[in-house]
Amino acid sequence: MKAEFICHKDFSTVQPINVFHKECEKKELDEKDDMYLNRHILFRKKFNVDKTKNAMLKITADDYYKLYINGKFVTMGPAASYPNCYNYNYIDVSDYLHLGENVIAVHTYYQGLINRVWVSGDRRQMLWVDMSVDGEQILISDTSWKCHEHTGYSNCGKIGYETQFMEIYDSGADEAFFYLRDFDDSDWENAQIFKNADYSLVKQQTKQLQFYSVEPKTCLEKGNTVWLDFGQEMVGYLCANAKGAKGDTVILRYGEELNGDGSVRYDMRCNCVYEEKWILSGGEDTLNQFDYKAFRYAEIILPQGVDVSNITMLVRHYPFESKARFDADTSELSAIVKLCANTIKYGMQENFVDCPTREKGQYLGDVSIAARAHAILTGDTNMMKKAITDFCNSCFVCPGMMAVSTSSLMQEIADYSLQFPAQVLWVYKTDGDIDFLRYAEPYVTDMYKYFSQYERADCLIDNLLDKWNMVDWPKNLRDGYDFPLTRPIGEGLHNVINAFWCGFLQSLDKIYVILGKKKTGKTDKAIKAYISAFYCEEKGLFCDTPEHTHSSIHSNVLPLLFNIGTDECHKNIIEFIKRKKLSSMGVYMAYFTLAALKNHGEYELAKQLIADPDCWLNMLSEDATATFEAWGKDQKWNTSLFHPWATAPLIILSEKALPY
Q1: pLDDT digits over 429-449, tens only?
Q2: Same domain for 85 and 51?
């Protein structure tokens, strides 16, 4: 039997919206889509088994699911993906079954927003299930399943960049205990077939997330407020039990830091107002939130007469075991390594999220830093390969690759795309997987053809009108880079994008040599033209533009990384870096700087710069338990305090790993 894509009746006959487009080609959603926003849709099915060993479940949902079997929470998923290569999870559920009648209950969620989190806002909502025991199919998704909307979830505002709905959870909703075996679903309607389903399913290549409870390090009662400190910013859900009168409303606040009076700063600097509500039923209630948040501190504000107990945090992250050794021979370096490792551990979800608060999306730039750091820490490149595959899958929108994958927000950043061959090559040099290199090569080649349309006669590129030229972030840490980085970029030649282009060609040629293909024949010509355009003999440095009016640190780090120029030039750049330090740039460009130094035998200098009081140690002085988006909280108007792209020290201080 073939499992069906089943859905709520509201989605049964709707036509999916094509949300994919070039970033510069704006698209507006139909106003009627308001009815499809923030939909919590439940499915239940009773089934019988006569044996429980080797019970394997294939399951997926759009946008996301939370799975229960016989009243027990099992897992959540899938990793975000595009409809033409949509992930399903393959899970051993033997331990959750028993002989006789069983009940499977699935809480699915269709968010409906255009953002970096999921491919949503496209009117695709579904559940798909296929279960077998000892290879014999025993359960599929079809119209015999019961379906009902969960009336216990409403929203109290959106956060971040249209990232997430803050939740109001009503424990008095009829569906509050929908997941229990003996829940009465007799008045629920049958599920419908999603008639316009256009999915091609693929098995998710990465593991399921880990979920476990953590008790607060500190729990204090202050009047009607319970104040919590979990000791470390983590990702997950607040859990608690409460008893009060029917309709009593508990206020839940979360934050990454505290206000001056010791209260939780829930109006967070990263543009997230982390305040939610919990409406009590009058009985023994359990808080059951759906969407995750990242926080260290929480406040539970109680109405008079309400008692709260069993407060924990259900932490979620990708399975993590640190296997790496680091050269951290001082207390400062050791503290920095721990900070970065915690960021990777708690920050990795199904994807390499840019940050787990404001964006919750996977950027191609994160693959250069966070993905390398994760592979080094765990000794496992599979998560990085999955990310690379995600971005290969984005190429149906543009062969030059999307900057965010997999999502319905269309964003394109040339700086990130031009790093892609180096990411692919790094994986091969790390694990030797020639088959994966062969898989990725056609996408690298198509990207090469795409960017070649912007080539001048001398093989440099300019006028990249359809993509960002970012250089660094935040803007105020570009060291005065003297080129107008407008969106779209204006006419003219500038340094950083061409340095990345030279690095792109170098990595592409290396991939071609490994695979026995002919090199492009353009690399040396492009490098020669780059030196001619940007190197200033008088300064002994590279300049931002051919006019040679300004030399930023960014215009010199990359030629050092890609070994462009003479030995004398490289010495000048190294001295330039010593003077400027990492604090003259953002945490993003700091990674390339440190990698360039390590490649040029300046490892001790790299260690000194990592331990600069104005960099990672400044984060620690500002009470960081995860790396920041910038060197300090006030360097950006909406600084994220949980940003895995700032974990470069793990790559540089690793005893074995390649830096770039």
Answers
A1: 999 999 999 999 999 999 999
A2: yes
